[in-house]
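Supplementary Methods. Inverse-folding protocol.

Structures were first reduced to a discrete structure-token string of length 457. This string, shown here, constituted the complete conditioning input.
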């Protein structure tokens, strides 16, 4: 059959010019930024693949919704629109808006975790674990071993190892486990999905022990896409149906609307239990804002409500994940080491294979992100030992995965930007043997990867 391509299900009606820089300008910018891509000025960045968080392009309908913001302090109509959309598409009864995902994580962790508790999860996420630990909990990784292996082709590397979960329940006791924390997809594993069958099994197991299950639904729509593609029995279901079923196996979710939901700011906590909801409604007033705005303007609530409806459309998701696959497939064909299968929101480069000459404490992934910026002005992100931080005893967590994430904002870049990206990664790959590592010269206490500074060895 002759090839039939997909294309973006939108056309562009507003553009934002990009600035190109010289290598000398980038060298200077990189030194000023302490070799940390988070500390670059975005004006010095050409193609920004730092994150897909809050960086997506809103639609004309979302922008029109912004003009319909009801900026009343209490009871804004946009809150009720969002509440209705969350109930319809995610299926939870109660909604507490928050300024972004970590606002919801803060509320949930504060309400449910007591000092000494254990929170099992399918790999950590930085802010999620930080809030669990801040509340006195200890995170325990229960993801399958394949998730820690960049070359394993397991189709659902976000799955929970039920044996690991059973073992931690037996060891800690169900009373010490306030909830199991399940991400869909799993960001730190490379944007890898969890299967419906696995999620259902986790729900059954935890239910037998009277343990709650909370979902990090930040990219659950992308997870739904993978279930539709890969899991028997789901090919003919809509993404909306799959999303609803996913959520039905949980007691609630924390959500960063800045990803799936195509907004620049926003998030929520959504759940079924009235008592937890009551407590969250009380606390949100202290930390975020009144329970009907949660730190957001009415217009932001409206954009998020509209984003839910747009994001769950199949043609949108095909193009979104199709773009990530396009870059991943090309890099793979060039023999460049990436995490496989290719994830939902990003292509992850395996920095250990780029720089076998570097010890993990010479920060191979941080180094790779710096080299890529130097080559072309493309901004990526370290997801390795710097992101992993230190444990309670002050020792570095030493993650098996030492990755650089090329993260794709939704509806923002074209295929030509993708080609430039592929070529730049190839150039760095070809020069990999000459590269020296980095030394950390400033280390912040919390979430160090955001503000740490480095110098060249
Ligand atoms: N959960 C997941 C899986 C995330 O990827 C993020 C954010 C959050 C929670 C926190 O949400 O940023 O709205 O407070 N991830 C961004 C990223 C920062 O670049 O991956 P937030």
């Amino acid at each position: 059959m002759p090839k039939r391509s997909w294309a973006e299900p939108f056309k562009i009606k507003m553009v934002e010019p990009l600035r190109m820089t010289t290598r000398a300008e980038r060298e200077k910018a990189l030194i000023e930024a302490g070799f940390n891509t988070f500390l670059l000025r975005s004006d010095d960045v050409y193609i920004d693949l730092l994150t897909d968080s809050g960086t997506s392009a809103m639609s004309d309908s979302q922008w029109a919704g912004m003009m319909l913001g009801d900026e009343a302090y209490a009871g804004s109509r946009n809150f009720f629109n969002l509440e209705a959309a969350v109930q319809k598409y995610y299926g939870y009864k109660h909604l507490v808006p928050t300024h972004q995902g970590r606002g919801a994580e803060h509320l949930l962790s504060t309400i449910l975790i007591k000092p000494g508790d254990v929170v099992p999860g399918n790999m950590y996420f930085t802010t999620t674990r930080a809030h669990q630990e801040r509340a006195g909990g200890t995170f325990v990784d229960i993801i399958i071993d394949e998730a820690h292996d960049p070359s394993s082709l397991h189709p659902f590397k976000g799955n929970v190892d039920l044996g690991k979960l059973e073992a931690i329940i037996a060891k800690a006791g169900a009373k010490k486990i306030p909830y199991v924390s399940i991400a869909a997809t799993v960001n730190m594993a490379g944007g890898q999905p969890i299967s419906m069958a696995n999620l259902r099994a986790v729900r059954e197991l935890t239910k037998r022990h009277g343990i709650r299950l909370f979902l990090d639904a930040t990219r659950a729509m992308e997870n739904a896409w993978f279930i539709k593609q890969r899991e028997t029995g789901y090919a003919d279901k809509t993404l909306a149906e799959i999303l609803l079923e996913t959520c039905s196996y949980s007691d609630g979710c924390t959500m960063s609307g800045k990803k799936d939901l195509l907004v620049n700011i926003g998030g929520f906590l959504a759940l079924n239990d009235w008592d937890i909801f009551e407590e969250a409604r009380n606390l949100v007033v202290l930390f975020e804002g009144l329970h009907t705005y949660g730190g957001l303007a009415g217009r932001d609530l409206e954009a998020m409500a509209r984003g839910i409806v747009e994001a769950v459309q199949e043609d949108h998701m095909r193009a979104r994940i199709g773009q990530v696959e396009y870059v991943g497939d090309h890099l793979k064909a060039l023999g460049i080491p990436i995490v496989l299968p290719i994830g939902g929101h990003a292509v992850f480069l395996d920095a250990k294979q780029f720089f076998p000459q570097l010890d993990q404490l010479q920060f191979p992934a941080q180094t790779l992100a710096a080299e890529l910026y130097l080559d072309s002005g493309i901004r990526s992100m370290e997801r390795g030992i710097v992101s992993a931080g230190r444990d309670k005893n002050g020792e570095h967590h030493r993650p098996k995965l030492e990755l650089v994430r090329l993260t794709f904002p939704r509806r923002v870049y074209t295929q030509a930007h993708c080609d430039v990206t592929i070529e730049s990664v190839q150039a760095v790959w070809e020069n990999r043997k000459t590269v020296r590592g980095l030394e950390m010269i400033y280390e912040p206490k919390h979430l160090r990867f955001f503000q740490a500074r480095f110098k060249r060895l």
